[in-house]
Amino acid sequence: MARLALPRVKLPSLPLVSTERAAWVFAGLAPVALVIAAASPGAWVIAPLAGAMLLALVVADALLAGRCAVWDVETPVDVEVGQPATITVTARFTSGRRTGVAAAVACDARLAPGGRITADLAPLPDAPGWRGETTVIPTRRGTAPVTRAWLRWEGPLGLGARQVSHPLEQVVRIWPDLSPVRSPDLQTFLRNAQLGLINRRIRGEGTQFEALSEYEPGMDRRRIDWKASARHTRLFARENESERNNQIVFAFDCGQAMCEPVDGLPRIDCAVSAALTCAYVVLKGGDKCALFGFAQAPQIMTPFIGDSRAFHRLQSAAAGLDYQAVEPNFTLALATLTSKLKRRSLVV
Q1: How would you write the chain as a 3-class SS string?
Q2: 44 pLDDT tier (thresholds 50, 70, 90)
Q3: Cα–Cα distances in angstroms (integers) from residue 13 to residues 51, 102, 103, 121, 166, in the given order
């Protein structure tokens, strides 16, 4: 049996709407109308007249709210996952009196829970117009489109309101969290580290032998070279050269276990933030690093980067790590990573 498909009709949004207060007033008149109909059936006309008067009062209250001349929604272009971001709504009205102005924004669920953002507007003290701000905390990386916005303002009695809406074509890019990289503690550590731009050999706690020096009190006794000391009448200690130009690979499991939330954020996002912080220190120390992501199959493999000025390439690559609710294939991932490495590397 064939079904008759009716065309979908998209109804326009009503410019005049009732408020919650008006709904409660209508609900309060219902038992009054029942009492009037039971006590005096001939006076039943009072109930519809009261309803009509209340409806006219709602319409009049909405008209007294005035018209909206212009309004705008400002969203940030780039935000970081887990970090607060501010969305601002401004509006300017031509005339009328208002008791409350509110706005709602439809967006992607990774920008706000449920994909809905609300904000209450307040009059500006030093300029005509209303302004409201709300703070959102993104919970996932990616691109979050902001699709539509609504503005609603109530009349002086709070019974009727006006409402307008218009589509938005704004996109918010959610990047990995780099707040640990910008932390004062890390910046102070890197500033005080004995690392410069001059290519020179640095003696330290590495494993590559550099030279022998006469042992002095305070040195680590494990550095004493007993064979060299036996050939002389004094103790000699080994000095090693600090290793540089090492290759470090940060491998990310993007499978189901890493998608589970920890303190409101997926585990993979916490791992990405920690790895990028370590990668920044690695680049400042003169080593090279790369990112590798996998789930059922390898996702990304960046080339090794040795310049801190190219750190943004690692950030962009980390933003492309996708969430996949599947079991990871570690055998395939490690085999693929091993085939791409040409020299000894540290895999984290």
Answers
A1: CCCCCCCCCCCCCCCEEECHHHHHHHHHHHHHHHHHHHHCHHHCCHHHHHHHHHHHHHHHHHHHCCCEEEEEEECCCEEECCCCEEEEEEEEECCCCCCEEEEEEEECCCCCHHHEEEEEEEECCCCCCEEEEEEECCCCCEEEEEEEEEEEEECCCCCEEEEEEEEEEEEEEEECCCCCCCCHHHHHHHHHCCCCCCCCCCEECCCEEEEEEECCCCCCHHHECHHHHHCCCCCEEEEEECCCCCEEEEEEECCCHHHCEECCEEHHHHHHHHHHHHHHHHHHCCCEEEEEEECCCEEEECCCECCHHHHHHHHHHHHCCCCCCCCCCHHHHHHHHHHHCCCCCEEC
A2: low
A3: 24, 16, 15, 21, 10
Query: What does the alpha-carbon distance between residue 88 and residue 134 come to, in Å, rounded to a whole number?
Result: 7
Task: Give the angle subtended at the CA of 103 by the CAs of 99 and 108, to the nearest 5°.
Answer: 165
Distance CA 25, CA 158 (A): 11
- For 276-294, how does the pLDDT look when each residue is reduced to its tens digit (9 = 90+)? 888 888 888 778 888 888 8
Predicted confidence band of residue 1 (pLDDT cuts 50, 70, 90): very low
Structural domains of the chain in order of their starting residue, each with its CATH number: 12-175 (2.60.40.10), 203-242 (no CATH), 247-347 (3.40.50.410)
Instruction: Pick the range with the lowest mean pLDDT from 33-37, 216-220, 228-232, 291-295.
Output: 33-37
Task: Supply the pTM of this predicted model.
Answer: 0.67
- Asked if residue 273 has pLDDT above 50, the reply is yes
| pLDDT at residue 335 is higher than 80 | yes
In this structure, are residues 240 and 222 in contact, taking their beta carbons and an 8 Å threshold? no
Predicted confidence (pLDDT) per residue in 81-114, tens digit: 888 888 888 888 887 788 888 888 888 888 888 8
